[in-house]
Amino acid sequence: xxxxxxxxxxxxxxxxxxxxxxxxxxxxxxxxxxxxxxxxxxxxxxxxxxxxxxxxxxxxxx
Length: 62
What we know:
It is a single chain. With 62 residues, the protein is of the alpha/beta class. The chain has one domain (6-60). Helices cover 37% and strands 26% of the residues. It contains two helices and three strands; from the N terminus they run βαβαβ. The protein has helices spanning 15-26, 41-51, and strands spanning 6-10, 30-35, 56-60. Strands 1-2-3 form a three-stranded parallel sheet, with helices on one face. α2 (41-51) links the parallel β2 and β3.
């Protein structure tokens, strides 16, 4: 049985964090996405859900 990889991405909704998120999803790696409130995280999660077959969770820092 092959082990499924999971990555934690901080600053996931902007810049390099967003680029890493999309690249990792494209490699079929599950994601834990962390970002500040009002940073576009819900929109990124929607994009991931529509375009990739990975599991993910989102965390908004306070």
